[in-house]
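[Automated response] Your request has been received and processed.

Submitted sequence:
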Amino acid sequence: MHLLLHFCQWLCHTSLGTAIRESTYVYPIIETIHTLATVLLVGTVVIVDLRLLGLLLKREPVSQIAGQLLPWTWLGFIIMLVTGLLLFWAEAEKMYGNPAFRIKLLLLLLAGLNPLIFHFTIYRRVSTWELAPVTPTRAKAAAFLSLTLWSGIIITGRAIAYFH
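Generated structure:
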């Protein structure tokens, strides 16, 4: 663990980390872009999840909704990832010991595994069930888990500011 701490200390004290952290405008701008990208990512995920739960767009094929939203989901993810890395870079030393940050990273990992597992299992046969009156239980479970994980990510992301 000491190696990771030393890496975080080094990263934080690089010229880029210091410039971001000490700038009057750069850090808040990056943080704002990070928040907006998270909204884009989570917003598109929520639409698909609510469709899988049978609460939204019931007459629309799941694959059509997912296909239309996927480019926006990826755009939100890429921007969120880049800005998140820049925010971490600026405060890596502080984030190292922050329990909310650690929980957020764990939840992000799980939130990434959830659709991966979903797409390699139940979604492979989406054409057989996407217009059925009732979505398969495993698809609903994946959607519920997704909503839960992303809610946790948002909550812990916000909590980072309150743990020192």
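Summary generated for your ticket: Residues 2-162 form one domain. The chain has a mean pLDDT of 94.
If you did not submit this request, please reply to this message.
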